[in-house]
């Protein structure tokens, strides 16, 4: 009988400890926005084409998506020191309010994205042409990841 009480007491401590740890995490970290991070390797001799793609088309698309409420923000980073043949040169980070927005491929959201795209490119044919000549010809996608921002509350 003593063993049963001892086991119950230990289980109670484990449950209370787990609950306290979960509450502690909730008090120190708030889930932030969701980011899609794309890492690209610029093809040799194509840096100018990629810069043209970013400046003339990609930024206008992202600004249009931001204006339409599809994304919250975006940023680009470059990595001047390469750590190997398969390393990335340019990173694009697009911020969404939550996972639902980042992963939503609904008809409504697709329509809004298509409207933004057609404002930038004019026609579907022109979009395919620009993608082939500038976007796809100037870079390779190394990896794409979705991450969630952690907003850590400061100590009081």
Topology:
Layout: H1 2-28, E1 29-42, H2 47-67, E2 73-78, E3 90-96, H3 99-103, H4 107-121, H5 124-138, E4 139-152
Antiparallel strand pairs: 1-3, 1-4, 2-3
Helix pairs in contact: 2-4, 2-5
Please describe what this structure looks like.
With 156 residues, this protein is α+β, with helices and mostly antiparallel strands. The protein has a single domain, classed as Alpha-Beta Plaits (2-Layer Sandwich), CATH 3.30.70. 53% of the residues lie in helices and 26% in strands. The chain has 5 helices and 4 strands. It has helices at 2-28, 47-67, 99-103, 107-121, 124-138; strands spanning 29-42, 73-78, 90-96, 139-152. Strands 2-3-1-4 form a 4-stranded antiparallel sheet. The mean pLDDT is 88.
Measure the end-to-end span: 46 Å
- Helices and strands, in order, run as HEHEEHHHE
* CATH hierarchy, class: Alpha Beta
User: Mind telling me the C-alpha Rg?
Assistant: 23 Å
Helix count? 5
Domain tally: 1
How many extended strands?
A: 4
Q: Which ranges are low-confidence, i.e. pLDDT below 50, for 5 or more consecutive residues?
A: none
Provide the CATH topology. Answer: Alpha-Beta Plaits
Strands of the biggest beta sheet: in what spatial order? 2-3-1-4
**Looking at the structure, what is the overall shape?**
globular
Strand content: 25-35%
Portion of residues in helices?
A: 40-55%
Summing up helix and strand content along with how strands pair, one would put the structural category as: alpha+beta
Q: Please summarize the sheet with the most strands.
A: 4 strands, antiparallel
Query: Average pLDDT across residues?
Result: 88
What is the second-level CATH architecture?
2-Layer Sandwich
């Amino acid at each position: 009988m003593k063993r049963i009480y001892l086991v119950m007491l230990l289980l109670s401590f484990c449950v209370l400890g787990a609950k306290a740890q979960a509450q502690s995490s909730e008090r120190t970290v708030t889930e932030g926005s969701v980011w899609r991070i794309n890492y690209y390797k610029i093809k040799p001799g194509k840096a100018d084409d990629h810069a043209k793609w970013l400046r003339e088309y990609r930024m206008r698309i992202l600004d249009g998506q931001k204006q339409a409420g599809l994304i919250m923000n975006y940023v680009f980073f470059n990595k001047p020191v390469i750590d190997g043949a398969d390393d990335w040169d340019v990173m694009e980070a697009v911020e969404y309010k939550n996972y639902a927005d980042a992963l939503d491929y609904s008809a409504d959201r697709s329509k809004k994205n298509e409207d933004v795209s057609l404002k930038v490119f004019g026609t579907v044919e022109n979009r395919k042409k620009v993608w082939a000549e500038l976007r796809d010809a100037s870079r390779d996608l190394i990896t794409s990841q979705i991450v969630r921002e952690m907003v850590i509350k400061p100590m009081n």
